[in-house]
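Fill in residues.
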């Protein structure tokens, strides 16, 4: 049965890519098909599979005729991102790949940043299908779409259930405004515009100097082309202020969670430092400070509020908890919140009965 043998050979090779043990791959395949001669296939194809998965063979197949691998050095990729404004040179999409266009990869002898550009999946298919010329790419590299508009863009996948927003170790669920500074809604979630539609996330995040690095406008994000570096890998976006200086990492877990793994921002004198697995620290221009870990607010009007009246955490929450936390005012530096003291949210309840309750 030559046709079946050919099909089985292909199936074995596919399974081999997902299994470290070639014999186990063959065994899994044989078990799935009745009537196959187990011993025959195990003897015939296991040896073939070992040669197919030979590391040297795989390494050779990843090189072009000049011996150049597909691995592009990180410094070259960063320079390409910086030049192209962190998005596709044609349409500005932040979902990009690195495209060798002059010359194409099969003819390239080195990874020259002048011959590499950022292309989104759609524009890449146009290029490989012959619908986008090398001449057009050369012109686009001289005037990338992102530098023309000032930003690269992408869309968040947000469902019709209220998303959970995680800021470092600060978790907000059904919170309308996560961050509010002197009346400005810095990070908020709006209800669906139409029944059954998605919730709408809005945000305006800045760097330690107060310069805008990321905007989210009703689930569409925009990263400034003036950033030093913006890198998108899978569901995670990283914004750097300089080499090794990360000021924002944001991760999407669609459709119901958005995680800000790391943030260093300043707005109108208020600084926010957030890092996944560490304390979140909020300091106001007047000297008030909140430092806490493991906070979870549910059904709040505002998660973090900075106003002329001071600093408040978990305003109007129907429920919530915190593993540890302290709030300091300019009048009482270093004062730590006791469990029998009044809760900082202004509810009139003791801390242990309000945001400090163990759930």
């Amino acid at each position: 049965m030559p046709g079946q043998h050919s099909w089985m050979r292909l199936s074995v090779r596919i399974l081999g890519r997902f299994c470290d043990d070639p014999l186990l791959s063959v065994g899994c395949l044989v078990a799935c098909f009745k009537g196959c001669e187990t011993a025959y296939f195990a003897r015939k194809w296991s040896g073939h599979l070992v040669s197919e998965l030979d590391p040297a063979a795989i390494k050779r197949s990843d090189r072009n005729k000049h011996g150049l691998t597909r691995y592009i050095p990180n410094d070259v990729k960063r320079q390409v991102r910086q030049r192209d404004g962190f998005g596709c040179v044609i349409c500005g999409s932040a979902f990009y790949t690195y495209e060798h266009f002059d010359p194409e990869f099969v003819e390239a002898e080195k990874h020259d940043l002048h011959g590499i550009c950022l292309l989104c999946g759609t524009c890449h298919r146009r290029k490989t299908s012959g619908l986008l010329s090398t001449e057009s790419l050369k012109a686009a590299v001289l005037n990338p779409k992102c530098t023309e508009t000032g930003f690269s863009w992408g869309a968040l996948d947000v469902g019709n259930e209220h998303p959970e927003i995680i800021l470092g170790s600060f978790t907000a669920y059904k919170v309308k405004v996560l961050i509010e500074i002197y009346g400005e809604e810095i990070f908020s979630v709006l209800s669906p515009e139409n029944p059954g539609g998605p919730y709408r996330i809005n945000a305006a995040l800045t760097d330690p100097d107060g310069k805008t690095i990321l905007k989210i406008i009703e689930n569409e994000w925009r990263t400034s082309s003036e950033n030093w570096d913006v890198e998108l890998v899978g569901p995670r976006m990283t914004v750097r202020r300089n080499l090794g200086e990360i000021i924002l990492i944001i991760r999407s877990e669609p459709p119901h969670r958005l995680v800000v793994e790391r943030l260093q921002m300043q707005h109108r004198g208020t600084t926010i430092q957030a890092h996944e697995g560490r304390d979140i620290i909020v300091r106001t221009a007047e000297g008030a400070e909140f430092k806490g870990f493991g906070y979870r607010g549910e059904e709040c009007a505002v998660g973090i509020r900075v106003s002329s009246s001071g600093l408040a955490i978990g305003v109007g929450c129907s429920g919530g908890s915190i593993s540890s936390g302290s709030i300091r005012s300019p009048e009482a530096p270093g004062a730590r919140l006791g469990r029998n003291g009044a809760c900082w949210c202004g509810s009139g309840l003791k801390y242990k009965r309000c945001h400090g309750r163990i759930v």
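The chain has eight helices and 22 strands.
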